[in-house]
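Incident log, entry 3
Record: Dihydrofolate reductase (193 residues)
Problem: checksum mismatch between cached and fresh output.
Input:
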Amino acid sequence: MGKVVMYSTVSVDGFIADENDQPGLLFDWLTSGDVSLDESGVLKVTQTSYEYTRPYWDQIGVTVAGRHVFDLTDGWDGKPPAGIDHVVVVTHRPAPEGWDPKAPFHFIDGIEAAVAKAQELAGDRLVEIAAGDVGGQALAAGLVDEVRMDVVPVVFGSGKRYFGSVNAQHLLENPDAVIQSNRVLHLRYQVRR
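Fresh output:
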């Protein structure tokens, strides 16, 4: 089974979006360099960010996200983001009416079942869980192996929390990656078992 990683870009005060689900300046680091991060040519980062981010992206087999994120992105128009093979959507509701049943999206009720399905689909590749409520549920359930965050020098003051509604203490190991780049600090922690 591949490792389960909780990930997002986050403000220095711990938010992944404002109260209106807007990321504001969180993603400025993705256009602050001169090295293309993907085939679109839109995302351009520094060489340092590229060397950290691209290998990680290349290992992801499945992304797990909540129905809220799915709805906000219009289901990525039926195509998983960034070349990922599958998306598992944690939801109590079925796929939207008219949804293409051949699209590599799986609508699963419950975080444990969603992560199990994602691991099945990913094989030995990584399962990435979007930070926020779904990521927090997975962490609280003991399903997360690693926490990655791209911390940007922005203070939101309020909004959507990186760890969602987690209300209990969870210990992480010391960071095993601390990489400073332009407008971002890349951090990686293993979850203490």
